[in-house]
Predict the 3D structure of the following.
Amino acid sequence: MPIIPLYGHEALRARLASAHARGALPPSLLLHGPRGVGKQRLALWIGQMLLCDSDGDRPCGACRHCRYVLDLAHPDLRWFFPRPRLPNPDPRTQDVLDDFVDAIGERRKSNGLYSAPGGSEALYVATVRAILQLASLTPAMGRRKIFVIGDAERMVSQEGSDQPANAFLKMLEEPQADTQIILTSSEPGSLLPTIRSRAIAVRVPPLVEPASRSFLGDPVVNAALDRLDLPASLEQRIELMEGAPGMLLESADRAQAIAAAREFLDAVSQGRAEWSRAVAKMSAARARGFFADVLDAMTVQLHARLRGAAGRSDASRVTAIAHSIEHIEDAKVRVDGNVNPQLLGASIAREVATWSLS
Amino acid sequence: MRFTIAREKLQEGLSAVTAAVPTKTTLPVLANILLETTDKGIRLSGTDLDIAVSTEVLADVETQGSITIPAKKLAEIARELPSAPVKMSSAGEQKVTLECGRSRFKLLGLPRDEFPSFPTVRFNESWRVRSGDLQKLIGHTAFAASTEESRPILNGVLWELRPERMRMVATNGHRLSKMELPITSEGAPSGDLIVPPKALEQIRKLFPAEEDLEIARGDNHLAFRSPFTSVFTRLIEGPYPNYEQVIPKDNDRVALADKNVLAQSLRRMSIIASDQTHRIRLAFNAGMLKLGVQTPDLGEAQDEVPINYEGDPLEIGFNANYLIEILRYMPTDEVRLTFKAAERAATIEPEGWKDDARYLGLVMPLKLID
């Protein structure tokens, strides 16, 4: 079962196709933009365009290369993305590739619809070594090799762990003439500056409304969304999606994050014993992903409380809440470095408690 | 498609191609082999897209056709069949019936169209090499290729092809093996290829020593062809390190030693050597080599080996495993070791080898800690 078509991004696609036709497509691209807008799907489309051997418009969608790409099975288009750490602490390339056979199989089974990686999933050094191994070989079927690296900022799995990113840098510094590298990131600021500077950045915007409607009109998409706890009406779904199909797929996770944020803030206002329990309930690892979503939800909820305090002209409370929001924003920066969520949670609880208990 | 084939012939064909069939793949059809009828019999093909193998075996073809069948299951069935003619037929594109004696199997295949096409390689400018010569080169060099994954280029074997000679070189950066053979391949272009050892190993096993092979390079693949079998492999890209500059030309201290006696002594010393460095000490004196090893928290050992050496005394450290490995592949009972100084590379060559080939092993020394 092939992956769903790429919806929207027509202007960007035309620009990329034109650059390719002129032989001006940079060998290393960084597709960046909001989370869930389809950067990795666009990267696969670029790969398909580069491998397609049709005499007409490319990608044709019908040639052997196109069919293999749409089945996520083309040996010259390698798609890597964050994965959980393998049980073997020093896995061999074959172990990594076997793991990706399974991971790609899962994505194929879900027609290319997937949610964002969990907090502990990363592009570890063994994955980068596997990429370098594959990049050293001549193409298997096509004229070139394409490497799509999704959520590339996860090459730095936590603050100070930049070994995978530095290993990958070698490939960007000395690319083979037949190799196209496409990185995607919704947090390009978290990439190593040396990586950022070696790839040409291309912004991928949210989908415009007609493209969103086309996406939601796809029966495969509909079937997948109907399995989630989402509003049934098309208009509500368009509103919820905000031009980012991936966010819709994550909306169930987001609802969970909103509930966790509310529970945490309520616990903090009930005294030290309660907030200690709330902090202990947080994961001791995996700051990225779900915990980051909880922090986002906390910010939204504190903004609502701030508006309430402002309505009551309670200036001291407004100042205190604003201070807490600032504290959470700092915590979000630390989340990029994958700092222990319990430590961050304790720090936030102590800060919020200064006003919520009074 | 309908044909009858001797069970032994079917097994022969299957054993040639199944080694190229992957155990895990994103492309399901690669778990199958492609069966096609030809004028003389059937052609079996298998690939993991790194290596592709295709071989033709004799069969009595009644109706032409082609289909892909699960490789592992067909190989298991062929192994268990009685020694009798095997009748195979396919109805449509997806079902194969196999009959042998009173046994009967029905297998589900996949359409031929889903099987990837093999690389296109033109043989009009090809090298011609005797398979036995190639086996000799591979057998004496491929072992030295790196298994570390940090420098992919060293995971390959450099194969230099010239009109009058061919040479293979492999190294992991600490030890190196090089062999050269004269060939006569007029009209063939010169070429430097970096070939994955896995492919070379398949080629070494697949082609009988007496067969003549044609070898040609396509855009991305290297192809080997005998009258009945073809093998295609992807190559490793990039410039191979300049190994020539590592091979010493001015080593003036020469020792002649009995290979087996030296290897046995090295193996004894390596028992006490560190598991990480495998470092041992070699002290060359007139007529005698003293071997020593000292490993903190474990112990020490000494040994002596009579050698033919007349230079100034020399103390030098090595990774024992690298020396043992190189000695294992030396084709003569006596070996020639050359040195310059304790911090310079040593070479090992066969002594008194009556062969057209030239063979050299090189080991980088380790710093001795007093």
Summary: The mean pLDDT of chain A is 90. Chain A touches chain B at residues 64, 68, 71-73, 75, 92-93, 98, 101, 104-105, 108, 129-130, 132-133, 135-141, 143, 167, 176, 178 (CB under 8 Å). The longest strand of chain A covers residues 179-185.
